[in-house]
């Protein structure tokens, strides 16, 4: 997701005569802070940020220096900023509703850790729980997993046997999907005969994997364009209010994995 949005943002800003610097924090809050300090020192006109932490002081530093910013994919408590992200509750609800209507009643949701409350992970769990309740489906201790990606395969191998395998798995993002597919392949578990698979976030190989993977995608071009437009508007008029959170509707790409 981030790579494609960056490309679209860069293209749109360059069309308006703005040079773009790209910094990769690699999901490291300390590295992110170092980049923000560097960019402030170079007096950039504004920043589009995929926030990796929840320390509002880092972003308040931008507010104090009157540097416009737009958050993408995540929100940060205590910070007033324009934001662009998916309607994550709707994404999970869409996945569960499609599976429930196909007759699945034992669905497992897997995401990355939520010890740092990263918006998409938290909201997608919440959306999953609401959808399961709406369809009167049971949630037990094998319904939701929040794990580092390198622990997903081992944990699933320990928790699931042929007799306890859920009828469907929802991967919370593309990184989780990769580990889930690897686990199923190692265990010789067939998709969708033994278990259905749905991924939130589209991936390049979803159409070509065998079987092709059903995904809940994000309208990446529209999100990238909106992020660039919001930043341009803030640069031109920093006093503009109020700040707005734009949530984009998810897109169902139904294929052969369920």
Plain-language structure description:
With 258 residues, the chain is α/β, with parallel strands linked by helices. It folds into 2 domains: 2-86 and 219-249, 3-Layer(aba) Sandwich (Rossmann fold); 88-217, Rossmann fold (3-Layer(aba) Sandwich). Helices cover 40% and strands 16% of the residues. The chain has 8 helices and 10 strands. A 6-stranded mixed sheet has the order 5-4-6-7-8-10. A 4-stranded parallel sheet has the order 1-2-3-9, covered by helices on one side. α1 crosses α8 (220-236) and α6 (152-159) crosses α7 (174-186). It is elongated. It starts with a helix and ends in a 5-residue tail after the last strand. The model has no long low-confidence stretch (mean pLDDT 92).
Quick structural summary:
The chain has 258 residues and is of the alpha/beta class. It contains 8 helices and 10 strands.
Summed over residues and divided by their number, the pLDDT gives a mean of 92
Give the number of domains.
Answer: 2
Global structural class: alpha/beta
Shape: elongated
What is the distance, rounded to the nearest whole angstrom, between the alpha carbons of the first and last residues?
A: 23 Å
What's the CATH architecture of the largest domain? 3-Layer(aba) Sandwich
The major β-sheet equals:
6 strands, mixed
Q: What name does CATH use for the topology of the largest domain?
A: Rossmann fold
Mind telling me the CATH class of the largest domain? Answer: Alpha Beta
Share of helix among residues?
40-55%
Report the strand count: 10
Fourth-level CATH superfamily of the largest domain: Response regulator
Strand-residue fraction?
A: 15-25%
Order of helices and strands: HHEHEEHEHEHEHEEHEE
Based on CA atoms alone, the radius of gyration comes out at 20 Å
- Could you give the order of strands across the largest sheet? 5-4-6-7-8-10
Low-confidence stretches: none
So how many helices?
8
